[in-house]
Amino acid sequence: MEVRIGVQNVARELVLESNQTSEEITAAVDAALSSGGVLRLKDEKGRTVAVPSATLGYVDIGAAEVRKVGFGLS
Q1: From start to end of 1-74, where are the E strands?
Q2: How many domains does the chain have?
Q3: Which ranges in 1-74 belong to alpha helices (H)?
Q4: In a designed cystine with 60, which of 4, 24, 26, 27 is the match (CB 3.0 to 4.6 A)?
Q5: Per-residue b/e over 12-23, b at no fewer than 16 CB within 10 Å?
Q6: Range of the domain at 36
């Protein structure tokens, strides 16, 4: 699942692919915002991305992508 995070006063957004579900990511964002703490997410390779909740601009949680195999037109 692709997650894009906008950080205040930073021109580029953070983009990561995560194995977490959208519900898990949403819960982590809600917890970070309500506590005023740090948003921590893990990417597919096991690395942790940490962003202070005070600097969050937005979090865009993409739909789970089903990878297509083959050359068929859709």
Answers
A1: 2-7, 14-17, 38-42, 48-52, 56-61
A2: 1
A3: 22-35
A4: 4
A5: eeeebebebeee
A6: 2-61
Q: Hey, what are 51's tokens?
A: 């962003």
pLDDT tens for 28-70 read 999 999 999 999 999 999 999 999 999 999 999 987 665 666 6
pTM here is: 0.79
- pLDDT for 72: 62
Q: Is residue 33 part of a domain?
A: yes
In a domain, 47, yes or no: yes
pLDDT for 17: 92
> Domain for residue 73, yes or no?
no
Amino acid at 2: E
